[in-house]
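Quick one, T. Sequence first:
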Amino acid sequence: MRPEQRASLFHTGGTTGLPKLAPHSHANEVANAAMMQMLFRHREDAVILCGLPLFHVNAVLITGLVPLMIGAEILLATPGGFRSPGLVDNFWSLVERHRVSFFSAVPAIFSRLLEVPFGDAEVSSLKSALSGGAPLPRAVHGHFEELTGISLIEGFGMTEGTCGSMANPLEGERRTGSVGLALPYTGARVVALDDQGRYLRDSEIDEIGTLLIRGPNVFDGYSRPEPNRDIWVEDGWFNTGDLARQDADGYLWITGRAKDLIIRGGHNIDPQMIEDALYRHPAVQMAAAVGKPCDRVGELPVAYVSLQPGRQVNEDDLLSHCQAHLAEKAAIPKNIWILDSIPQTAVGKVFKPALRQDALARVYGEIADAELGPGVARITACQDASLGLVAEIRVPDDVDISSLKARLEAFPIPCRWQQAP
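Structure tokens:
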């Protein structure tokens, strides 16, 4: 076995588009496990709870290879992990029974754990936890640390970097909302790129730019050649596709995904500012902002929310809240749709492609109802590997669709038409 040999293949999260297959070498995985152990410094008698599914790099590396490297105990919380019925509801008693000292999860899980009665569970064995995969709301962060007395570490990682690349320090200043500092042996830079993705310059302090990473944990490229175009920026620096800023002390702050930007008439709107504003509302449990298609300006911001258990609020209240908390008027959502639950990936990340598809179907559905009559056309949306977001429109074969086609041709999103009896 050689360090450069392939150890595993993992699918990327696919939270902004179709997932890709990322190969990891043995060197990638061992190096990243060592980096994470340098951060958390687990002892040999640690009990590490693995609650994320084993097809995810977090489970395999942070709660798998790291404890194996030091001879610690791994508690596999069922094959489905946090998705298993009853696991979250019984989490605190599980920690008490098995003397769990560490676990890792996505923000949605920490939010759900705050809803579980703590009772008289004795959880002093729990020393720290890691949150990643999405921004951790400030209220959730503060409340969780207050409830448990542990250090909740917010970090950043991606499948292309094997798993973790940066995190707030276990000891020392932790800055809520920041993903912290680059892990040992990992390089991290925020840079300005041109329209073709070529390097222009390093970003200034607190200037938003594109986040690049480099180090022994970074993979060599995807399994297929097509996605490898334009992912490298000079001398082996990997373009994460994330927008970030770095403060004067070196702490990194993720401000959004380049693919998530809502482009309204040439004006870039960061969806995270909308989501941050909505998270300040006490009734909101989860929030996600995307762009809905517009024939005038390309996209308009809209938001989806799910509510805290037992809370009630309507769209007008949430829109008023956004108007009061968003200084950038162009970012105020045109609609806020309340769902029972926000679509998520298998590991609990918000799945924005499903929301973009829903927004497209709503917009085109309103136009179709106006042109053809309510319910005449059935409109859905999908993500095509070649075309991207596509509208699928089904109408009876005896209906004249010329006016609807003319209206929808003003939008940049392609349509697939199907007429049937």
